[in-house]
Amino acid sequence: MPLAASPAAAAIMTALVTAGPQSRVALARRLGLSSAAITKAARPLIDDGYLRELGATERTGPGAGRPASPLAVRPEREYFAGIKLTGDELIGVVCDLTATVRVVEHRPLRSADVEHVVGEIAAMTRDLAGWGARRLGLAVSGDVDRSSGLVRYSPFLRWHDITLGKLVASATGLTVTVENDVKALTTAEHWFGEGAGADSFALVTVGSGIGCGLVVNGRPVSGSHGVAGEIGHLGVDPAGPDCHCGSRGCVEAIAGTEPIAAAARAATGRADLSIDDAYALARAGNAGVAAVFARAGEAIGLGIAAVANLVGPARIVVSGEGLAAYDLFEPHIRAGFERQAFGAAAEIPLSIRPLPFEEWARGAAAVSIQSRLVPLA
Amino acid sequence: MPLAASPAAAAIMTALVTAGPQSRVALARRLGLSSAAITKAARPLIDDGYLRELGATERTGPGAGRPASPLAVRPEREYFAGIKLTGDELIGVVCDLTATVRVVEHRPLRSADVEHVVGEIAAMTRDLAGWGARRLGLAVSGDVDRSSGLVRYSPFLRWHDITLGKLVASATGLTVTVENDVKALTTAEHWFGEGAGADSFALVTVGSGIGCGLVVNGRPVSGSHGVAGEIGHLGVDPAGPDCHCGSRGCVEAIAGTEPIAAAARAATGRADLSIDDAYALARAGNAGVAAVFARAGEAIGLGIAAVANLVGPARIVVSGEGLAAYDLFEPHIRAGFERQAFGAAAEIPLSIRPLPFEEWARGAAAVSIQSRLVPLA
DNA sequence: ATCAATACTTGACGAAGTTAATTAATGGTC
DNA sequence: GACCATTAATTAACTTCGTCAAGTATTGAT
Q: In chain A, which residues fall in CATH 1.10.10.10?
């Protein structure tokens, strides 16, 4: 395993993967090492095909010296598989070292039975075997212990204490990483997306639940009792609707998919209204339903402002399947955020955009890449 | 400077200072080093008087081997001064290496003029010079850049961009550290108080403002734009009172000292009611005023629950001069917290207790100790 | 051609850790 | 009471991983 050959090698790979091609001198400055150390650590990586030198010599200043020959990752040197598990489907991808998706595959799940799911995962990896991936990341919603590969509890799959990592490892022969889906997506955005280079970062997902992944001081936040990023259960309105958590006025009780549909049904008096009907009505100009989305967006904005005020991330990305109604939400999310964000927190850049669903599987692959580059993180 | 002789030496000192006396083997496990490394790094520390060996050999298990001779810090080896600046007073302490306060001194400030304040600080350090402290920590409320010793803005002192660290250093000849007061107190509690040993920790201060210091993954949270821990400006009630920040229903607009007094005045119809009068009335059973405190405590509890849900610290300490009304607040803080804390977050231990005012100065000294033990943190 | 400037490489060295063997101090066993 | 298992601490040889200082490479400007 030449990658983990030295601490410096891991640091070099990580820097190049997350920040793009750079000269040895630039790497040395970034990593706080001497350029000699970079030269030495980089050589075996070049020899092994993980890195290559770009002849591409950009113009340096006027009285220039020897031009730099930047180092760059060879993305195709190694491939990684990633699978996102939902209650009724597997979404699988193969990514290269820079987390660029090379293939996507969907596979329906007939049941959430553990053996069936493990079997389907194994079948999917056989389909993807042509890429030669030796590592596989799995993303599951719920309470997951990454270090042991244990799924403590997963609501959609109705799993309790499933040693998913071990089961899939022995079924596939791959090195398996299991991570919570929101954390995996957060990792992907932090390393390879809009959060790249940020020391702190937050990703908010909007859907049936409202979740949040956090990176602070460059490290993911896990919560000492396993709870973190529960933006959905911040209380923003004591007069708000009851929440399944036992409190009332939670962000999720106002802006979750089902509460929105319920409020839209109440506003229209139509008991059969689906969430898609609600989208359509709001877009058609139904004021009552539009107000439901406005209130929901505002609640999400307040939740995001809470993140901004408490941890002050450098960037915040908002996404999730709920943003299918992107156009209905966006201005109200921004309004709620801007009203409640305190002082300089209001200047935190907010990216609100739907992500393709494969992005979740890419998140799983990103965790696998990370586990390869940073043996212990 | 023998303390920073090696990384291991700094780690050993830090572990012993924060977690108490331990055998070399225990230190090795805790720090992830070999016991040989501990032996080597500890010797110069013993020779220099920073550490001593406790003969005190606790009973190990049944079939015991050689008894351990734990290492312990010699607290009196080095002393540290700490001064908390308020708008009208300096509070100074001298602490030993384990942050035990040895002397306290108060000194009124006639003005917030920078030269006057620096002069008074210098005079105070001369009073405390007998202890031989070579380092001084300063705690100031407001926006402070610790690395440069710059006070960017301090509301109570009405300071803008004062290079306090340099000014005091040249006036006293000491090595000076400047830190925000809440962060300093958080550091003190994290290293030497109830947060000792916790990987993540939160300190909530209740007073004219509501603040929060955060430690996540063992490191303080600063916020990329300078904002963090602004628990006072979480929005908890859209129908709540207007806040000076421009929004409404903020925790601080409900539970800050002045809003409480205002609400008590409104409840009683007495325009001259002070906050102390309000305490007295509530304790005497005035239902209207008691309800004001109940609402305030509840709002604080909601804010704390937000911290718990988002970052999940291992412990939370609540203090501040507002807790003079400890008995009026406490049950309502707990009620708000328990209602809104999600899942396992409700099990985070909450310590609600007034801290003596000298504690803020001890915080300043703690930052100074920390800067001695961890050259770069 | 020469020089200043910048990038990279090389090899000697040193800091700070490791492992493995050794010494130290204890309780239990026959 | 000799012996042994057990745990703690030390020691010495070695490894790893970096730095430093000197030298090489490649450019633009004079």
A: 2-76
